[in-house]
């Protein structure tokens, strides 16, 4: 049976993405994103699902940097999941928010709920965890007046009460998850494809004026739509960057080789990180 790894423990949004995307595959929880990615690289599991970007908080830099600098695995699919953040407490909580001393959750989840926390929990301290599921687990195991930010799955898994629903700042809150696998044929998604996408890593030549403009022009005159462009440090010195570019179409034998050849002629290094289908989940 195909084995899927995800950022755990139970009750995380990654687990929710896995449950709503795949069928009856065997599922394994990992406590960190690098551990999950390493498991695929080391052939311990077949597929890894990890978060890559949130609509409110932006890119999950740990995922990007680990794939670029530590482990090379192809992106074989993308899953977009709506995110609903709730304030979770134990069932015996008295209902007075001023009693809560700590809020536990992933740093992105806490940042997504800044307005609610600023208005209702001004004296509570933030405690950052590896995932929203882990935060719920901590609250369930504690006897202290603390709370977690997480989803309904976390509340159900750990026997918590949803004290306040949908406390995130913006209604259009979604997270993109990438699916990593050595064998793309093992990925069996139970939803229709929304679009095809290709992700490129482009490293610019050093100290060449107008290089970024030339890169974008190579896509523009071919009428290739870019949905995202982001710079990241190469970690070789100040001022040295590479770019991650998402193109909203599958890799082909005409346009992409033309772009690659044109950019390499400018002295750029071009790597394809994946060409893959995108799925949108409705919870």
UniProtKB/TrEMBL annotation:
The keyword Amino-acid biosynthesis applies. The record marks 175 as: Essential for prephenate dehydratase activity. InterPro entries: ACT-like_dom_sf, ACT_dom, Chor_mutase/pphenate_deHydtase, Preph_deHydtase, Preph_deHydtase_CS. It comes from the Bacteria. It holds the Pfam family PDT. It is an enzyme of class 4 (lyase). GO terms for biological process: L-phenylalanine biosynthetic process. Its EC number is 4.2.1.51. Keywords: Amino-acid biosynthesis, Aromatic amino acid biosynthesis, Lyase, Phenylalanine biosynthesis. It catalyses: prephenate + H(+) = 3-phenylpyruvate + CO2 + H2O. The keyword Lyase applies. This is Prephenate dehydratase. It comes from Oceanobacillus indicireducens. The gene is pheA.
């Amino acid at each position: 049976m195909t084995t899927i790894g995800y950022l755990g423990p139970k009750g995380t949004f990654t687990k929710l993405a896995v449950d709503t995307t795949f069928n009856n595959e065997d599922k394994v929880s990992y406590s960190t994103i690098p551990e999950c990615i390493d498991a695929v690289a080391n052939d311990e599991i077949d597929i890894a699902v990890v978060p890559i970007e949130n609509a409110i908080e932006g890119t999950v830099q740990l995922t990007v940097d680990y794939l670029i600098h530590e482990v090379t695995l192809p992106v074989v699919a993308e899953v977009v999941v709506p995110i609903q953040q709730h304030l979770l407490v134990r069932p015996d909580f008295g209902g007075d928010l001023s009693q809560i001393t700590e809020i536990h959750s992933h740093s992105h989840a806490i940042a997504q709920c800044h307005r609610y926390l600023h208005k209702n929990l001004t004296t509570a301290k933030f405690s950052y965890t590896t995932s929203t599921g882990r935060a719920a687990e901590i609250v369930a195991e504690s006897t202290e007046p603390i709370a977690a930010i997480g989803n309904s799955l976390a509340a159900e898994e750990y026997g918590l009460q949803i004290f306040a629903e949908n406390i995130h700042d913006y209604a259009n809150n979604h997270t993109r998850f990438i699916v990593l696998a050595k064998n793309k044929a093992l990925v069996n998604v139970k939803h229709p494809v929304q679009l095809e996408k290709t992700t490129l890593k482009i490293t610019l030549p050093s100290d060449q004026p107008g290089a970024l403009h030339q890169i974008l022009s190579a896509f523009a005159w071919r009428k290739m739509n870019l949905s995202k462009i982001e710079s990241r440090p190469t970690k070789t010195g100040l001022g040295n960057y590479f770019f991650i570019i998402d193109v909203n179409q599958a890799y082909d034998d005409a346009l992409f080789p033309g772009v690659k050849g044109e950019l390499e002629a400018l002295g750029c290094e071009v790597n394809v990180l994946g060409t893959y289908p995108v799925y949108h989940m409705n919870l």
